[in-house]
Design a protein that fits this description.
Helices cover about 55% and strands about 10% of the residues. It is of the alpha/beta class. The protein has a five-stranded parallel sheet with strand order 2-3-1-4-5, sandwiched between helices.
């Protein structure tokens, strides 16, 4: 892996996507670990066949695609099944990410991942940027965006690192609790800083 890589992470509703888009607007290439995770289990992929063999054919929709809602339900209820799935998918996702980073041509590139720390993807990056905001903002943003209940959001938050644990891994922090112009200022400062870092 040749190029200098920034890892972006944060809890649900912290604003990872918005921040990443601001970097992309400056010409920086980014890969989203969530999108890579969706791609590796798309129709016709070997990982989907293994998931079907493990969970049974009811884990597929009528059109042959993965029934994500059912899979989510299964792994939330059963930690062992979740572990099995992580052991299958994490190495494949990591491979996809490495391939992207090797082929990237921007001055530096970005790996954005909600599980950057938990899945040890931070080992692939030179620096970790944590997008931080209060739990109440996380909950209200996620409820608006995903149409989930407060209970569902809190259940997802339970599976992620706590704010303090995540901040412990941070090289840089963006506090995303104000308007977009405040966010843009923070991104611009960090972008200039990263340009100097990746030249060295």
């Amino acid at each position: 892996m040749k190029s200098w890589t920034l890892g972006i992470t944060g809890g649900i509703g912290s604003g990872k996507t918005a921040v990443t888009q601001l970097f992309v607007d400056k010409g920086i290439e980014a890969i989203d670990a969530d999108q890579a995770a969706r791609w590796v289990v798309s129709k016709g992929k070997p990982a989907l066949t293994k998931i079907e063999q493990h969970f049974g054919s009811e884990i597929l929709l009528a059109d042959g695609n993965l029934n994500r809602a059912l899979l989510r339900q299964q792994i939330f209820q059963n930690p062992q099944q979740r572990k099995w799935l992580e052991n299958l998918l994490h190495p494949i996702i990591r491979q996809e990410i490495c391939q992207f980073l090797e082929n990237s041509s921007s001055p530096y590139n970005i790996l954005v991942s909600p599980l950057l720390i938990e899945s040890k993807q931070y080992e692939l990056v030179n620096r970790v940027l944590v997008i931080d905001t209060s739990e109440s903002i996380q909950i209200s943003r996620s409820m608006q965006r995903d149409n989930n209940s407060e209970q569902q959001i809190k259940a997802i938050m339970q599976t992620q690192l706590s704010r303090n644990e995540r901040l412990h891994y941070a090289d840089d922090i963006i506090v995303n609790d104000q308007d977009i112009s405040h966010l843009e200022q923070q991104v611009e400062q960090l972008h200039q800083f990263y340009l100097t870092l990746c030249k060295n």
